[in-house]
Amino acid sequence: MLWHLFALEPERLTPLERTLLRLALVVTVFVLYWTIRDNRVHPGDDLRNRVVGARVMLTGEDPYTFIWQPGMPETLLDPVYDKDAHRLTVSPPTLLLYAPLGPLPWRVIRLVSFVAEWLAMLGSLMLLVRSLPEQRQRVLLLLAAVLFIIATDVWRLHLERGQVYVFQLLALSAAIYWSRRGDVDLLIAGVALGVLGLMRPNLLVIAPALLLTRRWRMSVAMLATVAVGVLATLPALPASSWQAYLAVGDQYYRSIQGSPIVEMQRPQHEGPVEGVEFAGPHSLRNIESSSFAVLWASQHDLGLVRMLNLALVSKAILAILASALLALAWLRRNDSLVASFALIVVLALDTEFFLPHRWGYADVMLLAPLALVLPDLLRVNEEKTPMPVSVPLAIVVLGLISGPLVQQFDLYVATLLRSWLVMFGLTWQVALPHGRGS
Can you give the pTM of this predicted structure? Predict the structure, then answer.
């Protein structure tokens, strides 16, 4: 039964829980129908640069510096134009995941990606709810996932663009599930974290943090998986590709602060590519970034702050966050494995805000740390009643509801409130001793 797929015992559900879960199912089916329509109408702009990058890689060229020229095959053309930066931003190992799709027609690739994203979301939820110890917590996580992620533009834009974050969510969810919320130091959990690190190199800080908390097997398995993934890219890519990949990040930092370091050549092509019209009115536009760099630049445009070297400042803060994570991991090494694992995951995900962009659809990743910390969020500190809920829980809830509510007035503010408040509440919860944030 559907109940059992999500580790629910129907006989223990209250009538209200049954009703809410059935409504969530109806909403999910409607969203499925709506996104199937999107998949037919919209081209999948971000999927295009990944597939083209993989195809270029298979030709032996550097996909991070490749410029399409007239006379080249349409299969190697990404027609979506950004004058200030190269559009390919995923890591080299991520391109290996897209390589098997390269020979397929574009419309088939679009369908395969759409189905895979939905399966990855459902798989992630199945793993995350099974990591929770109580049925009430599983019900709350499923309802929150549907109400604040699946039924919102977070998920719709993810599918419309053909994004990759849900696959990162799946890897992290697998690590959480296989570690049984941190109770067991399993090699397979480290492999899942290694896959995550290959897709998001800033999350490699998890590996030394695991070592400091004596999770030897997970850390070694993560590092070994990363080493295998990096070695696998060497025969497929020129030696310059890793450096070129990092240089694309600098291009985006500089373009955000209004001082681009390159001017990309516009492809000399008009009309459809592989039978599809990309960009322009054919793509959804209701999307904003929640990164620190974009936030600072927006305040500068309002005359509230002076412009900084956003690349340097962002990288410095990212390094400080990583150092703080390692220091806290060492100081809290005698905490339970559950608490230390939650601390590592949440603080590692905080570094995402200091990359050049963190677009709204990246908030699918919020489901993993939310599931990891949910039992502690719901536990009221008995020593400090009269507060009915903990302060971190209130902050997380405020962040979740800000997305759909504030979006009616200002999409950018809604994007900031959702992502920053949720992660701030979760960070508050795990950073305090013993995970108490009341």
Answer: 0.94
